[in-house]
Design brief:
Blueprint lengths: L13 E4 L5 H12 L3 E6 L3 H10 L6 E4 L5 H15 L4 E4 L14 H29 L2 E6 L10 H20 L4 E8 L6 H8 L3 H10 L9 H11 L11 E4 L9
Parallel strand pairs: 1-2, 1-4, 2-3, 4-5, 5-6, 6-7
Helix pairs in contact: 1-8, 3-4, 4-5
Length: about 260
């Protein structure tokens, strides 16, 4: 094991953010790049979208990698490609999170596996692969992106997978060597994504906003930038003593059971 007193944050962090060509993942990737990191972003369909993001980020050492969480081998290959392309790997952000809204009684097994494997299995396999590189250098950060759904029991496979990511975070934190931390962030409803959610649920967007805000003690939803800023903070040496922890960013939404 590495003596934690002798570990030191890399001067330039080399970061892999999965599911990062758009939305929250893109904001996380851009924020880390703005703080001096070299970032590998991933895409599952639009290479041009990912390359546009890479070109827009400060610094010139970012890369775009194709990725579909279809198998353990594809996840391991992604982590290796990020390591090789960046010249090392210090930070892994597990942000891939496919969603399905079918009732727990009727969800097709294909959707169950897609949601479970995309959220949990991919994070597990990627974390194991990344830990090997991080433990060699004696320093690393793994950040899992869960969701407010983790605290609910009526969000079907998605809520169960996001809840399991919290338990995975705790177990991986125990398994990691000194100098490497594993933490989790659980955003509530993200402001920029609520229109898309309303469309998927077939609900009026304005009514959905009011329902969410009614249950939120702070009276506002979290933004993508706020989530990205917390990810960046967790990746610093300042948070070197925090591991196995889940940070809810939901304005207190999970506490209100009205």
């Amino acid at each position: 094991m590495t003596d934690s007193a002798n570990t030191k944050e890399p001067s330039v962090q080399r970061v892999l953010v999965t599911g990062s060509s758009r939305n929250l993942g893109a904001t996380i990737a851009r924020t880390l790049a703005q703080q001096g990191a070299c970032v590998a972003v991933t895409f599952d369909s639009s290479r041009s979208e990912a390359e546009e993001l890479v070109d827009s980020m400060p610094g010139g050492s970012h890369i775009a990698l194709a990725f579909e969480a279809k198998s353990a081998d594809s996840v391991v290959s992604l982590v290796q490609a990020a390591h090789d392309g960046l010249g090392g790997l210090d930070v892994l952000v597990n942000n891939v999170g496919p969603w399905a809204g079918e009732d727990i009684r009727t969800i097709p097994i294909s959707d169950w596996r897609r949601v479970w494997d995309g959220n949990l299995t991919a994070a597990w396999v990627a974390s194991i692969a990344a830990l090997g590189y991080m433990e060699e250098s004696g320093w690393g950060r793994i950040v899992n992106i869960s969701a407010g759904s983790a605290f609910m029991r009526n969000h079907s496979a998605y809520g169960l997978a996001k809840h399991a990511m919290i338990a995975l975070t705790e177990e991986m934190a125990l398994a990691a060597a000194q100098g490497v931390t594993v933490n989790c962030i659980a955003p509530g409803q993200i402001a920029e994504s609520i229109a898309e959610l309303g469309s998927e649920l077939g609900e009026d967007g304005a009514e959905l906003v009011q329902r969410v805000l009614h249950r939120t003690p702070t009276g506002r939803m979290v933004t993508r930038q706020e989530v990205a800023d917390v990810v960046a903070l967790v990746c610093t040496e300042t948070f070197g003593s925090m591991t196995g922890t889940t940070i809810p960013l939901d304005g207190g939404w999970r506490l209100n059971r009205e």
